[in-house]
Structure formats: C-alpha cells, structure tokens
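fold description:
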Amino acid sequence: MSMSQTPDAPSPAPSDVLTPLSPAEGGGRLRGGNAARRVLVLMFAAAVTSGTAGLRPGSGLSGGLWLALYAAGFLPGFWLPLLVVRLSSRRVGLAPVLTTVGVGHWGGSTVRHGRLVVFRQVPLLPPVWLLALTEPAVPLGRLRAATAAGSLLSAVSAAALLACGGPAAVAGWGAAWAVMMTLATSIIMPGSFVAMLFRPPSGGAAGLAELRHGPAELAAVRALAAGRLTAAREALSEPCAEPGASRSLAEATLALAEGDVEEAARGALRVYRQSRRTERRAGAVRVHAQALAEGIAAGRWTAEQAGPALDAAVAALRTIHPKLLRVSELPATLATLNGRTHDAVALATRAAAIAPDALSRARVLAVRAEVLAAAGDGDEARRALTQARRLAPGLTRTALAARTVAPEGTS
C-alpha cells in the first residue's frame, strides 16, 4: 500500500496550510556549505600532498608513523577551538543540546542528563557539541573572544610543535593545517562561531534574538532531539509571556511528532514567514513539508490536495538548506509518492545513517519501514520499525508505518 492509500477519509483542505509557497517567499540561501566543502577538500589534498611529497621524506619516519603523528596534531588542532567555546559556553550565553562522538554513519545513541549523545561509526573525532543560544543579550564580543582564544590556542600549539623539530614537527604540521582549514571553511559559512569573528550575524540583533532559547525551550529542544516526546510536552506546558521563534518552532515540531499535522504545518509556516534568520527559516520549512507529507500518509489530505504545497516547500528547503533536506525522510517520501519504491529504500537508508538526532532518525526509519514493506522485505521493515519505536516512543509517524508493516509470522 502506498503512502497516499490509507483507509482514512481525507479532510477538507485548509487553504492557509495547503496554499503553495510563492517563489517570492523563498528568502535567502544558507550560503557557504558547498563552497566550504570544496575548500575543505582542496586544503586537505594540499596537506596530504605536501606531507607526502616533502615533509614525510624529510622526517625520516615511516609512512604509518608519520600519518599517526600528523593525525595526533590535526585532531586536537581541530577540536581545541570547539572545546574552548564549550567550556566557556555558560559565560557566552550558550548551552549544549546534544553531543556527537566520531564521524560517519549512525552507530548508536544514549541519553545522559537529559541530553542526547550520538556515536558515529568512525571514532576519529572527540565530542562535538550542538549549542543553543540562551542569552542573546550577552555581548557578542564574549563569543568572539572565546572563539578567538580557541583558534589562537591551536595556532600557538602548532607553532610550538613546529619549533621543536623532528617528529614533533610532523604533529605541528597537522595542527597547523587544522587551524587553517577550520578558519578557511568557517569564514565562508554564515552562522558558525569562527564566522562571527569576521562578520555580524545575519538579521542583526533581532535576528540573533530569534535564536534565543529560554529554560523551557532549551529543555524542549533537548527532549525532542533525544526522542522524548513526553518530556518535550512537559517543558512546553510552562507558560510563556512572549513566545519567540524558538518556542513556536519547538511547538510545531512536537505537534508533528504527536500527529497534529495541520497545527504543525500552520505553526511552521508562520515561523518561516516571520523569521529573519535563514537557518531558522530552513528548520521551519522542513517541519512544514514534513507535516504536509505526513498528512498525505495519514489520509488527512490527498496527494492532489497537498502535493503542490509539499513540492513548493521541498523546493524552498532545497534552495535554502539542501543538507537539511538530505538528512530527513522527505526525499524517500517523495520517491514513494512518485512510485519509485526502490529509490525510496536507498534514500531512506542513507538518511537514517546520517540523521543528526534521535527524532530525525526515528522519522526516517518509520518511512524506511514503509518502503521496505512495499518492496516486499518484511523482515527488514519490522527491524526498522522496532528501531524507530525505541528511538522515539509515541511518535505518530511510527504508528502510521506500523499499519503497512505485516506482523512477524504473516505474509
């Protein structure tokens, strides 16, 4: 059974939710991602080439030892600026939402002190933190000072190792390249901490205030990232005199997780149209598109009713923040709606592997269970469904998927 074929009768189409976004509403693009990747690849290639062609032969070290020393300098050089910002996060008005350890595909997760910890399959990197702004009134200079201090610490460490000569210099070259690559990529990526050293945040003070998370909003986004819907609902039940964009988007995300697709689509659309921050608009239009897709899957609307609005929302997200689209269930959902089941399996599998948090991964796994069931792989579909339930108990998207996955022992 396809996503648009459900036993529920479609509801009348609310025009405010299903009116497609116009091209004029597309807003700005979160620039820098593709350029940053190109710079990163070029600089990494230059680092390896220089080391292979000149530095390693001159060091008298074997290839394996040289690479080990180089990595021993590169990884701390990359991580020290992040660590300094994290250690000074309270002073500069930031708070951790989740932690990622390693790189590559999803390897597992746990929840510690109410915060999600994601383990990737390749343990090359130490912990990296996703931080939320909690005090926009804190002078931006404090954040700039913390970022500059971390970058300076990495640069000084690299210089000291280079001055030592011998094997230590190899580690120094690794640290030096890490500093240069971090600066080069961050400068051209708006919103990154290092970028704030060189340019003011987009949207000015009002745009920065949109990113503020009060205690309730911070608890809610932590709970949502961890797939804890009950905890998110409890956090958002706290009264708020002046709800901002962070609260509105968290409420829309929770409404979507709980199956209220119309409220989720309407709330996300409101944030999208009112926000000045490009990254906030990207998150809002993603929730809007997800709500439209889930509404079709649930039989709330037909594909004819919601399809044009869904296509417009996905097009806007692809323009603003294409990576946010790739790590969601939306590409697999669109492939399924267009009858490309096998493509949908591949897209869902890839998105589940690179999902940033537990709730996102649970949504993708639910869609993956549906498309696997449609492809005739019942065993894999049931495994995906079990994983989704474990990651985000009570997620409505998982309950929808369960309707299409045959129980174990049935054909």
Residues 1 and 374 are 6 Å apart (CA to CA). Residues 33-93+135-200 form one domain. The longest strand covers residues 103-112.
